[in-house]
Please model this.
Amino acid sequence: MKILIVGGGGREHALAWKCAQSPRVLQVFVAPGNAGTALEPKVRNVDIPADAIDALLEFASREAIDLTIVGPEGPLVAGIADRFAAAGCACFGPSRAAARLEGSKSFTKAFLQRHRIPTAGFAAFDRQSFDPAYIRAQRLPVVVKADGLAAGKGVVICDTHEAAIRAAEAMLGGSLGSAGHRIVVEEFLSGEEVSFIVIAADQTALPLATSQDHKRRDDGDRGPNTGGMGAYSPAPLVTPALHARIMRTVIEPTLRGLRADGNPYLGFLYAGLMIAGDGTPNVLEFNCRFGDPEAQPILPRLQSDLVDLCEAALGGTLARADVRWDPRAALGVVMAAGGYPGAYAQGDIIGGLDAAARLPGKVFHAGTRREGDSVVTAGGRVLCAVGLGDGVAAAQAQAYDLVHAIHFNLVQYRRDIGCRAIERGEQRVAADGQDGARNHPPHAPELS
Ligand code: AMP
Model:
């Protein structure tokens, strides 16, 4: 088989690496890929940007690609899956209509409300309808969100009403381009965040291993929000009881609602959840793709063939799929360029990759490119070093051994990835095999 992975970040490196392990796969192409994907056995980069749908389709047809897996949300929200389907090319990812779950926050909030799926209270505004009095009437802190895709910059948590009104006016005034022409003002939820990711095919959901990421840049969950500074799997917070509750109150009604609305879902579906003190899983957001950096620790734990699972989803046999997980924990530490998530330098030489390659664990590349004989930085999030171990603490130690072997100018990374899981005494969880998703069967609820 020939596989095409669309994208060039750490998630796509992990997807390409995993697909290349399938004995059925002859060649994996990554468009555009990065310096790490270029070095993987059976993997080749193709110089096509992830959002160039026409060129990707032309390449897939010419190369007779058997399966395309789309990494980032941009091309999915722009309708890549519809275009490939219309051309008879197998493409794993939701349609443009289903991808609106990520592409429009006001659409998603209305969807959640209509289908009685737990989420924060909200109101949506555009420039004409915006009413500062609504914000002044809210309890603090209050959350202001741009409606559209804003590359992680579209959410502001405000401690004062004035700050919230300023944030709303800036977005509506065009500070985030068209993404902010509509906004959602949302109640602040406290609790702990969990990423819950499934492979979905209409009414069937195959939950992947549980995970938690760290969104803030600095140790102790401080500093600005980022695309993610690290993640680990399993998430001890997600007990079997919570796992069942998330499936019943979030995933199943979401898939039923999408079907009822005429937009059945196919692909990775990622629910970003805030678990309240009373255990209620509130939906913060949906992503219409695998998480980044969650994919980097989750995929090394997947013992089943990812290509088989994607094909089962496309072929309507996901409910019979067999999925096996490595019982060990995995933990990924993101190494970012100095200044990220603000402005950062590019083109700095990355040293120590060969030494790291001789250590246990795996370094996935994100913002890297080859320059002559060197690998240099080419993005905000540069690498994700993943360790595996009997428990999160052991996985963490292996991941940081990799991190310490690698260096580049002004590198920044958190030193406490996995701290909450370790505090929770995760060894017990791993030993008991309580990872809710471990060898969990696919779930095919009856249509109501
Ligand atoms: P989103 O893109 O909607 O997931 O928001 C990005 C991040 O902002 C989330 O991962 C949360 O950490 C935080 N966030 C978003 N909405 C809320 C909320 N209603 N209450 C508390 N934190 C939130």
